[in-house]
Write a structure and sequence with these properties.
It contains three helices and seven strands. The protein is 28% helix and 33% strand. It has one domain: START domain (Alpha-D-Glucose-1,6-Bisphosphate, Chain A, domain 4), CATH 3.30.530. The radius of gyration is 15 Å and the shape is globular.
Length: 151
Amino acid sequence: MDQRIEKRIELKAPVSRVWRALTDHDEFGQWFGVKLTTAFVPGRISRGHITYPGYEHVMMEVVVQKMEPERLFSFTWHPYAIDPKIDYSKETQTLVEFRLEKTAAGGTLLSVTETGFENLPAHRRPDAFRMNDSGWAEQMQNIERHVASAT
């Protein structure tokens, strides 16, 4: 069974602004809640510590897949990999895709899709899906606030 998370939001910001919020690693970190130490570059790993209260011990690591300017940004990662005692490296990563479309009003329709949960170990799948589903809902609100307040 293909499990996928899909979220969409219309942002009152131009595509160029949303693109910058997604692909500049420092800006991404501001709204996402992570202090990334390396820039986003296709084919490379970007990592840093989560800054969300209670999760500061968690190291986030993504592998950037695609950066098609102002259209598509994607990465793979280990979803809900929060236990530092567990080695998640042998698990298949899920794919996160951000797609941007200009709206008639000059804003941006942002879609985020995460796929590949069916490839996770069965014991981790329900929690990873549930936590990321609610997490992406919150992150869409975070980026909305971020692009509205920042220039």
